[in-house]
Amino acid sequence: MNRIFQRPASLLDRPTHFCPGCTHGIAHRLIAEAIDELGIRERTIGIPGVGCCVFLYHYFPIDVLEAPHGRAPACATGMKRAQPDKIIFAYQGDGDMAAIGTSEVIHAANRGENVTVFYINNSVYGMTGGQMAPTTLLGQQTTTSPYGRDFKSEGYPIRMAEMLATLEGVCYSTRVALHTPRHVNQARKAVIKALEMQNAEMGFSVVEMLSTCNTNWRVTPLEAIDMIENEMIPYYPLGVFKERTGKDFL
Q1: In CATH, what number is assigned to the domain containing residue 145?
Q2: Contact at 8 Å (CB) between 90 and 101?
Q3: Strand ranges (DSSP E) for 68-191?
Q4: What's the whole-model pTM score?
Q5: Which domain holds residue 60?
Q6: For 98-154, how does the pLDDT look when each residue is reduced to its tens digit (9 = 90+)?
């Protein structure tokens, strides 16, 4: 039998704590593959937020600093300024980055801190009980919006990749999805590019990843894949919203 896949060296062989059907594991594999491809494992430090992201240290053979809720970009800023030769990435969910951590990520991005944020958007608070998040879609039912999100009382879902792309300090802002092989391949390229741009000292980079949460969406894993395609992508379009070139940087 021919081996067509092997575990990245930067991804530990551990049982997962993620729910069956969750695409956090895919995001982890893509980051590990990028670390291997770029040969930066000994220089890389991960900074997870809370919630489903928090056990980053369990899966990667790298140094990891756990951040308080929403504060990963602030912690990444301090770590990068103290050790500018290191590759620093934050790993955050939508409740972590787009709610309590909005201030931290906006100002880190605006200052052009030379760090990378991998941002998992699954439109709910995943670990704490499926509550409505800033990214919850209009009409989507959650434990705190049982009749569906209503813009009149809860406002509209936040498009973080587009918003951050407007800031001068951002060198790269993109949104990808993790629900099909084609989209995973596209996501892999985005993860590599974001880390390459940090290595080139070009500023703040963010990769937003549309991810499933079939447990809190209360659907099967297959139905969750359909939800990304038919419900999330129409509101959160995929693509690159800002990409600074070397010429732009100079």
Answers
A1: 3.40.50.970
A2: no
A3: 87-93, 116-121, 170-177
A4: 0.94
A5: 24-249
A6: 999 999 999 999 999 999 999 999 999 988 888 999 999 999 999 999 999 999 999
